[in-house]
What does this fold into?
Amino acid sequence: MNEVTLEIDGKEIKVEKGSTILEAAKGIGIDIPTLCYHPLVSPFGACRLCSVEIERRGRKNIVTSCIYPVEEGLVVNTKSPEVIKVRKMIIELLMARCPNVKILQDLAQEYGIKETRFELEDETCILCGLCTRICEERVGVSAINFINRGVNRMIEGPLEDHLGTNLSDVCIGCGACAYVCPTGTIVLEDLYKKIRSSYPFGVVEERTFGRRSEEDEVLGIYKNCYAVRSKKGDILERAQDGGAVTSLLAYALESGMIDAAVITVADDRWEPTTKVATSYDDLKEGAGTKYTFYPSGIGISDAVNNGYKDIGFVGTPCQTEGLRKILTSDQPYSLGKEKIKLLVGLFCLDTFKQELMGFINDKITRLQEVSKLDIKGRDLNVYEKNGEVHAIPLSDIEGYVNKGCYACTDFSSELADISIGSVGSDMGWSTVITRTEKGVALLEGAINDGYVEAKELEDLKLPIRLAKIKRKRAKKETGTTRS
Ligand SMILES: Cc1cc2nc3c(=O)[nH]c(=O)nc-3n(C[C@H](O)[C@H](O)[C@H](O)COP(=O)(O)OP(=O)(O)OC[C@H]3O[C@@H](n4cnc5c(N)ncnc54)[C@H](O)[C@@H]3O)c2cc1C
Ligand code: SF4
Ligand code: SF4
Ligand code: FES
It folds into this structure.
């Protein structure tokens, strides 16, 4: 039998064997507070905030719901006086350690805690281990770790200068740790500024192409440049520009060049996440640009864990740079670098914070009605399913830009096998830059097999202009130049 029956807060439910109490409760809309739990990584059971009371054979116990598996006949109470007492104690202890952390202040308010009886410290890290787990389990590099024991336990991380001297050797600047950190100890903006400004670009470039680019090669080292359009009507309908990315990946999959592609999809709240695409239809789900940041590289671990061995990846310049660093360096990579076979890079000036979507939802239209977002010129165009288009001046949403991107010097994904963007081609076409033999073979094959049409592009003024702007901005805002 694969299901067990249990009762949570008086409701009888059936859930899959092996689920945790936390998952079962979430499944029926019961909210249990958590701090060290995140669905992207394995549970750890460190903070115990998710404590609940269970009753079995007349005996009551407090257990940690994020790691406690459901059992037949279990009776669970998520809000008993005992549970509230335990949670209050945990919050008080954490408040003493990290009095200025917003998530703890919010919890204190929710549980009616006005002050803590314990000695105050001034930390921000609650030692939840989410950053270490995502870096190890999902990114595969273990660039961030716990050190010391007992009261001296701390995180050795990307922002600790005194400890992170070897960091640039292993950290790929993917931002996954900042994405999951619940306390703001690791902030994407600071992390990006630090990691991107120390990225060993020249070394990785040399190992990829056999030489470093000259200063005036602002689009990086490449072989050729084309305007490309999909020949598949169903892809063109959903694509951002000419549907080159989706069509080239479809060719790569169907020709056997790769057996899976890690793409970035979005839910109806425009929240990005990754998907391992293994079919033409899967790929179509990823079509269209999500302008908000997501650490898409973690999708590689899903592909590897599902047994794929020839993996393609599409992502922004920082993401493809991170993976190229793994491919060209001797750094440890537990997921197996030989499995990453193809890097498709996107053009990108900057990404936005997810709060931008809240702004669109509140001020423009319900996100569920949005069919496409497209930055063209000085506007972000919001397309509704009913055909209406709203143009938001970029100057109005500048506050939502992920300022960490200001440290990035790469507009055109210079370290990818093939780079694809919007600027430089007519409306409805994608600009495609081939960089490696693999990139050339991909485009040639897709043309020959009728996936895309292509015409050589002579005029690169616009992408060159944006690449120069990006490098100039990095130097001005963060002092970052190419290493
Ligand atoms: C954050 C961002 C900023 C961009 N800025 C520019 C720019 O300034 N100038 C420019 O010319 N082009 C920019 N682009 C690229 C452009 O928007 C199109 O992605 C590109 O032209 C390819 O269009 P297409 O029709 O060929 O792709 P499609 O066939 O529509 O496929 C799009 C692919 O992009 C991937 N993708 C979508 N969102 C993300 C994301 N957030 N992270 C990783 N992968 C993602 C999907 O997995 C999908 O496979 C940007 C893209 C992104 C994601
Ligand atoms: S940025 Fe990525 S690689 Fe670097 S420490 Fe964070 S999760 Fe690990
Ligand atoms: S840095 Fe953030 S994610 Fe890492 S252990 Fe501390 S609070 Fe948790
Ligand atoms: S969320 Fe369960 S122990 Fe932290």
